Amino acid sequence: MIVHPKFAFVHLPKTGGTSIINYLLQNIPDTQRPNLKSHSPAKMIKGQYPFIFGSIRNPWDWYVSMYEFNFIEETPYSYLVRNRTFKEFLEHIFSITETVERTNFEQMNEMNIGLLTNFFLITFCGSYDLNFHWIVNEVIRIENLYTELPLMFKKFIFPLTEQQIANLKSFPRLKTSKRERDYRRYYNEKTKNLIKEKDKYIIQTFHYEF
Questions:
Q1: Which residues have a Cβ under 8 Å from the Cβ of 49 and sit 6 or more positions away?
Q2: Which residues pair with 141 in a beta bridge?
Q3: Are 105 and 92 in contact (CB under 8 A)?
Q4: CA distances from 87 to 84, 94, 155, 188 (A)
Q5: Could you write out the three-class secondary structure of 96-113?
Q6: Helix (H) / strand (E) containing 52
Q7: Could you tell me which of 66, 49, 203, 39 has the C-alpha nearest to residue 122?
Q8: Per-domain boundaries in the chain
Q9: Could you give the angle at the alpha carbon of 14 between the alpha carbons of 10 and 18, nearest 5°?
């Protein structure tokens, strides 16, 4: 999470948030980290800032990034990945009933939603509300970061300077997973359709395609 007198950014894991946070810290004066955990949900700051936004990522790409990242970084979710193929990882998370950090897998699977949609609900809506009542004001697609972030700032916050926009376009992506293959190559028809069903809200809302 990152805050400024005029806005706050809420970080949903594996959606480019680390890069956005570091860009804002380095390029927008008066931006700072609050005394909260990095992935704190929007409800923790509800009503405290004029504008709250987050970021999202193509769901099929997101699962691959989540899978690969947890092979090389030790996180509470790493044990779900270790010694499993990508297909086994998906099958496992959509069948277990335990709780890991903020993820109640039993409730998630009873609701028939994906892990990404689970994070979306917790981070941006504040609860398991399938009406998807957002606390955040805007969610930008990380694939369109260089266009959507400046447009959002101009429309809702304040215009970025030409130098700030140039810095954004040259800013490096941070904490990326180490993988050589296109995310599509991780999927077969069954797992492709599994994500299409589990994360249909995100796919439809943000116009994602496989």
A1: 3, 4, 5, 6, 7, 8
A2: 56
A3: no
A4: 8, 11, 42, 9
A5: CCCEECCEEHHHHHHCCC
A6: strand 52-56
A7: 39
A8: 2-56+134-170, 59-114+180-205
A9: 60
Beta bridge partners of 54: 139
Token pair belonging to 78: 């790493």
Distance between CA 82 and CA 79 in Å, rounded? 5
Q: How far is CA 63 from CA 58, 70, 122, 151, 165, in A?
A: 9, 11, 17, 28, 29
149-166 pLDDT, tens digit per residue, is 999 999 999 999 999 999
* Stated length of the chain: 210
Amino acid letter, residue 18: T
Q: For the chain, what is the mean pLDDT?
A: 93
**Segment 17-61, tens digit of pLDDT:** 999 999 999 999 999 999 998 889 999 999 999 999 999 999 999
